[in-house]
Amino acid sequence: MSTQPVRVVHHPEGVVELRLDDPGRGNALDLPTAEALRDRAAEVAADPGGAVLLRSSGPVFCVGGDLRSFAGRGARTGAYVHAVATAAHAAVMALYEVPVPVVTAVRGAVAGGGIGLALAGDIVLAARSARFRLAYTAVGLTPDCGASWLLPRLAGPRAAAELVLTNRVLTGDDAERYGLATRAVDDDDLDRAAYRAAAGLATGAGEALRAAKGLLRGDTADDLRRHLVGEARLIADLADAPEAQARMAAFLAARDGRHGRDGRSTPRESESVS
Q1: How far apart, in whole angstroms, are the C-alpha atoms of residue 84 and residue 33?
Q2: Residue 193 resides in a domain
Q3: Whole-number Å distance between alpha carbons of 262 and 251
Q4: Which tens digit of pLDDT belongs to each residue from 47-74?
Q5: Does 166 map to a domain?
Q6: 194 inside domain
Q7: What is the rounded CA–CA span in Å between residue 179 and residue 255?
Q8: What is the Rg, in whole angstroms, of the alpha carbon atoms belonging to the chain?
Q9: Beta partners for residue 51, in sequence order
Q10: How far is CA 22 from CA 37, 70, 152, 213, in A?
Q11: How far, in whole angstroms, is CA 252 from its chain's centroid?
Q12: Domain limits for position 237
């Protein structure tokens, strides 16, 4: 069994899979996981095959940042959050800029930075039972991983504002209606559908697909890159503020009260942000 939180799997059909592989923690992003994500995404970008498949092991996609790793750092909180965000942002940029199509498969909870990561894909398939939640403002933070750049472009400015400011939860079907997901599929069919989509693209007209993706992306990469720098700076500044530290502590205390301080809660219950 792999001990790495993020893995790269090469499939014979030309599909290169980037797999979030720490299901016991809900694929949450602490600094080691964010750095592993950055490094494995760079590995995929260097050799992407004919298509990239981004998916997760376990019952959830990614619950975002690991608040427990953020909490209790006092004056060093902002620096730590900035390091996590910067590493995760490098992964988002690598996926956004990879020249071949990227298919994302989303199941279970996807929150915080997990949403920006998922939306970097060209085609996003979501299980009907998936739950999309931004979650940042609930703990006194702001979006990162490109969520505040991607959401207005995919869902429109009004819907993006609602999702960011109210932390409304979307199902997989809701995500399709809002434009966050290309298509919602039955839970049991998610992995098969995502792999079929990636394999079909990987065996398609490669030069034409790359050129078409280039036309769709246009010259937006530099804009996203600049935006990510601003997102990382702002979330780090807020992480140092008393309000965010108090909200994070209260969130963790409430969760410990529900589930006991000793063990970890289930991934669905540990929704957080990055």
Answers
A1: 9
A2: no
A3: 16
A4: 999 999 999 999 999 999 999 999 889 8
A5: yes
A6: no
A7: 32
A8: 17
A9: 15
A10: 11, 18, 30, 31
A11: 21
A12: 6-187+203-270
Closest Cα partner for 6 from 46, 58, 48? 58
- What does the pLDDT read at residue 272? 58
* Count of other CB atoms within 10 angstroms of residue 243: 11
Beta strand segments in the chain, E: 6-10, 15-20, 51-56, 102-106, 109-111, 123-127, 131-133, 170-171, 183-185
Burial readout 64-95 (b: 16 or more C-beta within 10 A, e: otherwise): bbbbbbbbeeeeebbebbbebbbbbbbbbbbb
State the total domains in the chain: 1
Q: What is the pLDDT of residue 72?
A: 86
The amino acid at 45: A
Residue 192, in any domain of the structure: no
Q: Which one, of 15, 20, 28, 16, lies nearest residue 4 by Cα?
A: 20
User: Which residue, 237, 273, 257, is CA-closest to 68?
Assistant: 273
Cα(102)–Cα(86) distance, rounded to whole angstroms? 21
- Write down the pTM of the prediction: 0.93
**CATH code of the domain in which 63 resides:** 3.90.226.10
Low-confidence ranges of the chain (pLDDT < 50): 1, 262-271, 274
Question: Which has the closest alpha carbon to 16: 65, 40, 51?
Answer: 51
